[in-house]
Specification:
By secondary structure, the chain is an alpha+beta fold. The chain has nine helices and 17 strands. It folds into two domains: 2-186, Creatine Amidinohydrolase, Chain A, domain 1 (3-Layer(aba) Sandwich); 193-205 and 220-447, Alpha-Beta Complex (Creatine Amidinohydrolase). The strands form four sheets. A six-stranded mixed sheet has the order 4-3-2-1-5-6. The longest helix is centred in the N-terminal third of the chain and has 27 residues, at 28-54. The relative contact order is 0.11.
Length: 450
């Protein structure tokens, strides 16, 4: 069934994704079918190995309506917009090589896998019903979603945690542990169907970014950065996609009054009219089939008489690509995010490259769970999330910048790049390639002479 759905997905996406041509997106019904089949695949093919790896034989996920645990949001069927009343999912693995048994201690079945095992007419107390199920399995380790290092794994509220412990039989209380590692591994790991489709999701994002940074949207001297930002928001809505953050567009220019290259990322770039000679940068992401993209690319507005991006800007852009190469060459399975950052910065220092690395996991969440590799405001170790090791089949936003002094502008320029990529256990592969040349605006002028 999954192969059939993927084939449908590919057929629908067989269209040119260049700007000015239609981008095809699955209907809501088709998306729901893909999401639900992917979920079943994850439960049957991924979860058993992760539970065995973590040593947790019972994972209990508890969430109340509209106060969703970040993990349960990835386990609900596509037609569920939220948990219902109190939704409790129980996953139990009798032995390390056994399939995972899945139960819903709820008033309803939760998707195809989690069949309800609570009958309120027989046992009115939902918590007692949960304890009866737990006692019948006699687990060695009960994993709950409370965590120190990841908000994604810390979705169990104080009230639900306390009530759970109050009801739990005394002989099982010593078995309760944090499910942080299991939750992170569930969120960070991409399955074969997801990996096969991520390229197409990134293709869509690239196509939208490219169109926004083009003469199709930008009229120099008229269009402002906020005009482009809101064009992106409208485009996302028109395509029936979602986004997980508001896009941003900023300008660097030769004008000494422009200090964008020094702006702290905690502050917003001012709205400015886009002019010839401007170096544009966009930060943009979409959510599609519950997976996220996070992309930063750059464009240059050609001045009168110019037919291509100036050589000095092309050379500066190459420094950004070089930092990408340095970083991704240090992705080694088992290394922590902090170790990857230190190794990368050592090479950057040796090559006298200025810049910063702030790469993060990418998947069910834009800023997802997994090893953090630097922060924009901290180029040292990140305790906790930076100590998490790198695993195969995990996705990342390769996010960073290179700072290059331009004699032509008598100032620094900051090359800011971000691309979605997969670490397959041996190497990093960009889902849909990466930007290696600054986009000229307009594209059509590249063939013209003076």
């Amino acid at each position: 069934m999954i192969k059939k759905l993927l084939l449908v997905f590919y057929v629908i996406l067989v269209s040119n994704l260049c700007f000015g041509q239609e981008i095809a997106v699955l209907t809501q019904r088709e998306q729901a079918a893909v999401i639900d089949n992917w979920l079943e695949y994850r439960i049957q093919n991924l979860l058993p190995g992760l539970m065995a790896e973590s040593g947790i034989d019972m994972w209990v996920v508890i969430s109340r309506e509209y106060n969703e645990d970040p993990v349960i949001r990835t386990m609900l069927p596509a037609t569920w917009m939220a948990a219902r009343r109190r939704t409790i999912l129980v996953m139990y693995q009798p032995s390390a090589d056994a399939p995972v048994e899945t139960y819903a201690v709820a008033r309803y079945d939760v998707g195809r896998s989690f069949k309800r095992v609570w009958d309120p007419d027989v046992q009115p107390d939902q918590w007692k019903a949960l304890m009866e199920l737990i006692s019948s399995k006699n687990p060695k380790k009960i994993g709950l979603n409370y965590a120190k290092d990841y908000g994604h794994a810390d979705g169990l509220t104080t009230n639900e945690h306390q009530v759970f412990l109050d009801y739990l039989p005394q002989n099982l209380r010593s078995t309760v542990v944090s499910a942080q590692t299991l939750a992170v591994r569930w969120l960070e790991t991409r399955t074969a169907p997801e990996m096969a489709t991520y390229k197409h999701i990134q293709e869509i994002a690239h196509a939208i970014v490219s169109e926004g940074l083009s003469e199709a949207v930008i009229t120099p001297g008229v269009t402002t950065t906020e005009d482009v930002v809101w064009w992106y928001r409208e485009k996302i809505k028109a395509l029936k996609l979602d986004t997980w953050f508001h896009p941003s567009v900023d300008i660097q220019r030769a004008d000494p009054a422009n200090t964008e290259q020094n702006r702290n990322f905690a502050s917003k770039s001012p709205d400015s009219v886009i002019m010839p000679g401007d170096l544009l940068h966009v930060d943009f992401g979409i959510t599609y089939l519950r997976l996220n993209t996070d992309t930063q690319e750059m464009a240059y507005v050609l001045k009168a008489g110019e037919t291509e991006v100036p050589a000095y800007l092309r050379e500066a852009f190459g420094q950004g690509n070089r930092v990408q190469d340095i970083l991704t060459s240090n992705f080694i399975a088992g290394k922590s995010g902090n170790e990857i950052l230190r190794a990368s910065r050592k090479v950057m220092d040796a090559e006298a490259i200025r810049g910063s690395i702030y790469t993060h996991p990418l998947g069910f969440y834009g800023h997802s769970a997994g090893p953090t590799v630097g922060m924009w405001d901290n180029q040292g170790d990140t305790p906790g999330a930076g100590d998490f090791p790198l695993h195969s089949n995990t996705g990342y936003a390769i996010e960073l910048n290179a700072v290059v002094f331009l004699p032509e502008w008598n100032k620094d320029v900051r090359i800011m790049l971000e691309e979605g990529a997969l670490f397959d256990g041996k190497e990093v592969r960009y889902y849909n390639g990466r930007q290696k040349e600054i986009f000229p605006i307009p594209r059509a002028n590249k063939h013209l002479g003076n």
